[in-house]
């Protein structure tokens, strides 16, 4: 679409100007009126809107959009469309009632795109990654089938499920993370401040120290001397790891490794497959063909390794294989799930079976998360005990030797 430069006055009478995209000058004038600006002059422009430094700073400083905002938006859109409210009026009402200023801007932009003649799915896709590709595809299916309000309701339940799973994982990892962080801080304090004091005391004895004590002192001396280099190395390693994760190969390797982590790996697998099953069921219930559904769902599992398995399932289905056969070849589903898939394909209710699979995995994840602390706690206690034992032996063994020498005299 062409761009148009405009000059006008806002509600306060102040002169404003800028560049907008629209089908013609009339569409741009409508956009301006909808945003409270009275146009004075509209002329064609060859350049897109420029982004000044101030605009970029404002974008960085403005609040983000939480998952709850998208969740609430989906529910409200279903309610308003179900009640027969026109979509433009529904978006205007949601924009006016939105508390999040950033999301208010998004809703305004969506309305402007609809004014320009775009579909809802296209308007959502232009919002700088606010709405996921899966979300946009589902809205597009709703537009094609005439069931837009139903799709918004299914998206609400899907996002609610996603948030629940994410909150459960965060809650389960909070205690172990706190314990590990406390142990790390304790190790740093002991090596930087406590052991050097004992090292000075032992040095005054002019005696040969036990190997464990010498090892602790040497490690402490290394940390005291090179702590800036250690800190810089850790920061550089973290930065390099982030860059590596940004590559396709690095993301794939890391996501595959996560699935093999003891205890936590099986929870990640089940949570990922629950997300896949729920997304596939939603796409299937909305009328999306199986091949397209697998392509879309692969983008929502948030795991490159599992996504690759799903892509291979799609390729198998394109070759004429059944979903069950491709699922068996993927090697990530349990026998119970494969049996349910077989029943779903035979009965023609694969979407219902996928919903059951998602519910089953969700229950298993909930159980695993509730027992996660109990499974990790013995490991943490053993680790803490080993650390205390090493420190105690390293500090008290020289005193024990000196005490025995004094008794012999």
SSE blueprint and pairings:
Layout: E1 3-9, E2 15-21, H1 25-34, E3 38-45, H2 53-61, H3 67-82, H4 87-97, H5 101-115, H6 120-125, H7 133-145, H8 148-203, H9 211-245, H10 248-258, H11 264-285, H12 290-297, H13 304-318, H14 323-330, H15 335-347, H16 350-370, H17 372-408
Antiparallel strand pairs: 1-2, 1-3
Strand order of the largest sheet: 2-1-3
Shape: extended
Percent strand equals 5-15%
**Radius of gyration computed on alpha carbons:** 30 Å
List the helices and strands in order.
EEHEHHHHHHHHHHHHHHHH
Describe this structure in words.
The protein has 409 residues and is mostly helical. Helix content is 75%, strand content 5%. β1 and β2 form a beta hairpin. It is extended. It starts with a strand and ends with a helix. About 3% of the residues have low confidence.
């Amino acid at each position: 679409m062409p761009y148009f430069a405009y000059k006008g006055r806002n509600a306060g009478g102040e002169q404003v100007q800028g560049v907008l995209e629209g089908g013609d000058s009339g569409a741009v004038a409508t956009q301006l009126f909808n945003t409270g600006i009275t146009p004075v002059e509209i002329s064609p422009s060859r350049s897109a809107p420029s982004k000044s430094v101030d605009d970029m700073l404002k974008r960085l400083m403005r609040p983000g959009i939480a998952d709850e905002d998208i969740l609430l938006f989906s529910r409200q859109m279903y309610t308003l469309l179900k009640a027969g409210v026109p979509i433009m009026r529904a978006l205007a009402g949601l924009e006016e009632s939105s508390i999040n200023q950033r999301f208010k801007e998004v809703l305004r932009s969506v309305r402007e795109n609809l004014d320009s003649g775009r579909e809802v799915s296209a308007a959502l896709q232009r919002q700088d990654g606010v709405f996921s590709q899966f979300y946009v595809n589902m809205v597009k299916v709703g537009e094609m089938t005439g069931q837009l309000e139903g799709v918004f309701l299914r998206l609400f339940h899907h996002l609610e499920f996603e948030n629940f799973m994410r909150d459960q994982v965060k809650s389960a990892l909070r205690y172990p993370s706190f314990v590990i962080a406390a142990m790390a801080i304790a190790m740093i304090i002991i090596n930087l401040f406590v052991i050097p004091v004992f090292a000075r005391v032992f040095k005054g004895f002019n005696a040969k120290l036990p190997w464990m004590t010498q090892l602790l002192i040497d490690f402490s001396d290394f940390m005291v001397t090179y702590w800036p280099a250690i800190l810089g190395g850790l920061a550089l390693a973290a930065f390099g790891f982030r860059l590596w994760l940004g590559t396709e190969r690095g993301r794939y390797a890391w996501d595959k490794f996560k699935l093999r982590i003891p205890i936590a790996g099986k929870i990640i697998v089940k949570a990922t497959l629950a997300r896949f099953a729920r997304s596939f069921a939603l796409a299937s219930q909305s009328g999306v063909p199986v091949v397209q559904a697998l392509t879309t769902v692969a983008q929502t599992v948030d795991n490159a390794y599992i996504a690759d398995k799903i892509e291979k399932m799609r390729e198998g289905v394109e070759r004429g294989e059944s979903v069950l056969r491709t699922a068996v070849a993927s090697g990530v589903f349990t026998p119970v799930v494969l049996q349910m898939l077989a029943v779903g394909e035979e009965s023609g209710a694969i979407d219902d079976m996928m919903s059951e699979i998602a519910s089953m995995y969700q229950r298993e994840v909930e159980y695993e998360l509730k027992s996660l602390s109990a499974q990790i706690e013995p490991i943490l206690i053993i680790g803490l005990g080993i650390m205390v034992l090493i420190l105690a032996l390293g500090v008290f063994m020289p005193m024990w030797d000196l005490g025995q020498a004094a008794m012999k005299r």
